[in-house]
Amino acid sequence: MSDYKKTKKNKEKRNNIVPFKKDLQVLNVDNSIDVKQAEVDRINNHAREVFKKLEEFADNCKISNSEVWYSILFFAKQRAIHSIPYANFKINDEGSTKEITENFKEFYSENFPELFVENNNNRTLN
After folding, report:
1. What pTM was computed for the model?
2. Separation of alpha carbons 67 and 104, rounded Å
3. Whole-angstrom distance, CA of residue 120 vs CA of residue 32
4. C or N: which end of the chain has fewer Cβ atoms within 10 Å?
């Protein structure tokens, strides 16, 4: 290839670069863990506010609360599965279900111990 064609191709490649964000600013973050935790806290606070409003909405509906919460859960999961990769959705779905179930079990065992029966596997005939 001639030198003319090589330089022409190089110039075209440089000119075809389009920045994604024109006003992009690089931030120097000293402690990314603190920034991440602050963002997680902000998300949690916003979610709590949203779900307080949803709870008020569910209480005022003319159908049962379980149907309202099923619909809310359905749309939340549907939005999640369409918004993130399936592998992440599956991990998050299984992890959150397990965590919520464990928290619920722990709450009931602490506050209502009379509802739990000891499981004795030592059943023998005397």
Report:
1. 0.59
2. 20
3. 49
4. C
